[in-house]
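Human: Note token order:
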Amino acid sequence: MTSLLTVHAQHWDFAGIDGLQVAQNLFGDAIGRLAPFQSAEISLTQGHCSVLRLCEGNFRVGWQGEPEIFQQQMAQAHSGRRVWVKQLPWLSVLFLAESAGLLCLPQIAIPKPPYRLQAMPLNCAIPARIDGMSVLVWHHPINAQPVFELHMAVQHLQPIRAVLLTTEMGTPSKLAGAIQD
């Protein structure tokens, strides 16, 4: 199993009546062409980010850079706009190497219809459940390496990690190095 490098990313959500305009100010007009649960990789001054469109005016950003820089850029982009921006204290993120995700996620994750895990393309996300716990499964590249990024409530991090480590095909010794949070 290929181990994943440590991922240093902060996650920010923003939404509101002007959410799309703020996203376009920050990331360019092409961001408006993303459908819900599609994403794009964007390089900004002094950082890189993954942008996931959750719905019409709601976006989640995985920022890889100094938090202050993104905060400044976001403050300029949403000044005078009807949008809220925050890091969600209840959100926990687990990074799973693509090879490990392809092996174990189809065994343990139940996607919400009509979504499917099989042949899930890059830059897409789907809502799912693992052992009855809600998870957003996001398949996208980080540092040019495809990963599965699992978003869940903080209280579900350890139970979901345990399920991942004990799947039938992956023993703890095989998957332990492929999971990062």
Summary: The chain has two domains: 10-86, 91-180. Residues 99 and 119 are 13 Å apart (CA to CA). The radius of gyration is 16 Å. Residues 67-78 form the longest helix (12 residues).
